[in-house]
Amino acid sequence: MSDEKCPLCGSESFYVKDPGDPYEMYEFDLKDGKIVFNSDTDESEIPEVQGETETYCNRCAWHDKLKALR
Q: Are 13 and 65 within 8 A, CB to CB?
């Protein structure tokens, strides 16, 4: 499987917001269908990310459910 990209700008970098704190964001890339969070992200704080999770492009205004990228 190829890496998933933003349908608008082609970026491979995305983020999700913490459901308990909308100002807290967690950046990640999609590599071979798997979510790879940045190395500086504390794994104990990462929210659960599923197909229905609202996902945002890190480079443009695109956002949709994670499943739209897969």
A: no
Q: Tokens 């104990």 appear where? A: 44
Query: How many CB atoms are located within 10 Å of the residue 6 CB?
Result: 22
pLDDT tens digits for range 22-33: 899 999 999 888
User: Tokens at residue 61, please?
Assistant: 């205004």
DSSP per-residue letters across the chain:
-PPP--TTT---EEEEEETTEEEEEEEEEEETTEEEE-TTS-GGGPPP--TTSEEEESSSS-EEEGGGG-
Tokens 């909308």 locate to 22
Q: The whole model's pTM is what? A: 0.88
Contacts for 51 with CB less than 8 Å, ≥ 6 apart:
65, 66, 67, 70
